[in-house]
Amino acid sequence: MSDIDNKGMFSQLPASLLWKNLDSGEVFANESCLTLFDAASVSEDFLTHLAFYDAESRQLLEGDTHPFVTCAQRKSSKIQVRITSRARNLSCVIHGNLIHFNQQDWVVLYISSAQDNDLNGTQTENSPLSNHLMFNRLLSGISSQLINVSTDNLDSLIEESLGAFGVFCGVDRCYLFQFSENKEFMDNTHEWVAPGVQSFKADLQGVTTDDLPYFNEIIRREHVFKVADVSDLPQAATLEKEEFERERIRAVLCVAVHINGELFGFIGCDILGTPYQWREHDVRYLKLIGEVLSNTLKNLSNRLSLERVTAQLESANKQLTYLANSDGLTGIANRRQFDKALKQAIDRGIREHKFISLLMIDVDHFKRFNDTYGHNAGDKALKKVASALSLCCCRTDDLAARYGGEEFAVVLPETDEEQAQHVATKIMDAISALAIPFESSPDNEMLSVSIGIATQKCSTTILSNEFIMLADKALYLAKNKGRNRIAVY
To answer: Which residues are part of the catalytic machinery?
Structure first.
């Protein structure tokens, strides 16, 4: 038999076949195969542009991984692939066989569509009921993944959902578009493309209603944009036709997505190369996927709104707490916070049998300072003193507070007398470093402070008021001895 005879033999078979003569390297396709890919009108061009992609890795199968090569190495094999052509792209199962016939070696690939929902009309064994059940399983899986989705993995899960739907339906692209708030622009926010199909997501950002006026009118009015053959679009859709042809789209189906009754965007899918008559369940399935995504986005939006409100309330509460516990002039703790912190420090010291120290600090001759420089300068001086005190409170539990007027206090939990004197010395040095001029001072020409220290071993007999009195007595001693000094009770 000649090659022509062998070709004729395979051509007569009803199955969709591709076969290759290993001696001559020629590849052939029978009529059933051309019909499967809607390629009868481009039969001469079909084999030239045929490409095979791995169904899982999405990698192009070429060289040693090409199905013809793989099947030539084994007597028989089964491969799941995505086949792209100039006409139609399909997810397929290939059963390959190496045949020796008439003293020649042939690799024969039997090709069947792998689409579960019979989009291509090639699987007669799938009834509408079984398709519906399979889609419900798909929808349930998508819903369970998206039900508690977070903002961190929202985008990836939406694209996974589009991909699951795209694979189920056998389309070439599946995508989600979002309208701007004023509905004058739309962005391709999420997209899935089948292996071997070019993505146009980056190009489809900031698309205006003027760019696709016919599409926008239909999707807003009818909520469904369904085109079986782009070449049949009316004159009014010239811009849409140009864009679809640029992306090689031949059939397109889009469904509007609403959130809280307002148009959010649309979900859509494309078929490249050949026309396709969209069926009622194609539209219904796409609508259901769109509803799942819209519910997800709505729930996430509501959750984020609640989180924002909660965060705002927490921030407001923190601000109120800060205002309630802070001195309005200096920004450090006020008398209310001081009383609370001192009691807590004493209570903890009792439990842990620790020392506690208290520093009472008074700005020397502050009335005279105010009379000399004015209250505005006095306020600035108090702010600087307060800031210096805060910087000297190095530990987390140390607290500097404005006790009243020009008097301040520092609570030092778990601090003995020697440690307290060290802190007091740091404070004296810090105030001296401020170098606030005070020419009318009877003691020196700089603003200074006096510090009284009280230290106690915490016990149930120690009371806050009595402890404050002890520190006050120490402060009185410091002032009596000439001010600008430290005294210990």
So the answer is: 406
